[in-house]
Amino acid sequence: MRRKAGLVLLALAVFFAALSPLLRWYVFPRLAKVPANQYQDMVLEAKDATLLDYGTMKAEKVSKVTIVQTLKGNVEASERIEESAGRDVVVWDGLSYVVGPDGAMVSRIPERYIFDAHTQEPVHATGEMVDGDPVRRRGIEFKWPFLTEKRDYEYFDAQARVTAPITYEGTRDFRGLEVYYFEQTIPWTKVRFPKTLPVKGLTAEAVAKTGTTRWYTTVRKFWVEPLTGAPVYGEEIHKEELRGGTLLGDRDKVTAFAGHVKMREDYLTHTVDLVKSQRLLVLLMTSYLPWGFLALGVLLAALALYLEARARRRSGPARAAARKPSSVSA
After folding, report:
1. Would you give the end-to-end CA distance of the chain in angstroms?
2. Averaged over 222-238, what is the pLDDT?
3. Angle, to 10 degrees, between the axis of helix 289-323 and the axis of helix 2-22?
4. Calpha distance 67→96 (Å, rounded)
C-alpha cells in the first residue's frame, strides 16, 4: 500500500511541478486581456489656468478648466475586426470633452483606438481615427502592457498625431502601491484645430483661411502599476498657442490654453482601489499559484521518497528472514 501511495504522490508531484511554469508562461498570456466591453471615465482639472476667450480673442485667467475623458468598448466593432485580424481585439471609442469654469464647451475631440487585447499593441483597421481624421498609430496609448517593464516605451500623442518615447524615470510608492513613473515631453508642434470649436458657426477651415495656426506642447506624466499596466495617476503640463494670421490682429501669438492638468481626487481614489483589486488577480496567475504549485510539487515528491524509503526499510528484514535456512533436527 505504501508503494502505491508513493507512486500516486510522485505522479501528483510531477503534475504540479509541470503546471507551475505552464500556468505562468502559457495560460497567463492567453487569459490576461482587456475586456472588449470595458467602460471607464475620468475627470481631470486644471486650476488657475489660462484660457482663450474666442469672443474677444484674449487670454484670461480662469478658476478651473475641466476635462472629461471617456473610453467605451465597442463590442460589435471589435468582433468584426477580429474576424479578419485573427486575434483578440479591443476597440475603444473615446471622447475628450473640455469645459470652462462656466460649464461651456471649449472643445470635444472623439477618438477610436484599436489594439490587441493581450499586448496592447495597435491594430490597424478601418475606423482608427482622432477627431474624424484617419490615423495609423505606433506605440501604446492609455494603457501599458501587462507586466510593464522598467524601460522606455513608444507612446502615441493624439494632439500632435505623432509617436514619441515615454521615458521610465524610476520606481515609486504611490498610496501603498509600487508604481513605475514615466514622463514624455512633446516640444512645440504645429497641430490641427479641433473640428468642434466653442464659437457657433466658427469652423477649423474658416480659421485656417485667416492664416492663424495652432501650436501645442506638453509634459505628460504617468504613474503605472506594473502588473496590470494600468495608470493609477496622470498629469499634464499643457500649453496651446494661436500664432500669426489676421485672426490675431497685430499680435504674433496668444495663449489658447495653459494649465497643470491633474486627476480629480474622487476619480484618483476610485482608480487606485480598482487597480489594487485587479493586481491581486494578476499576482495569482503570475506568482502565488505558480510558486505554490511548485512548492506543493516539491513537498509531494519528498513525501513520496520518504514513503518509498520507509517501505524499503520495513521490507529488508522480511526478505532476509525469508532467505535464512531453517534449522532441521537430527
Report:
1. 42
2. 96
3. 160
4. 7
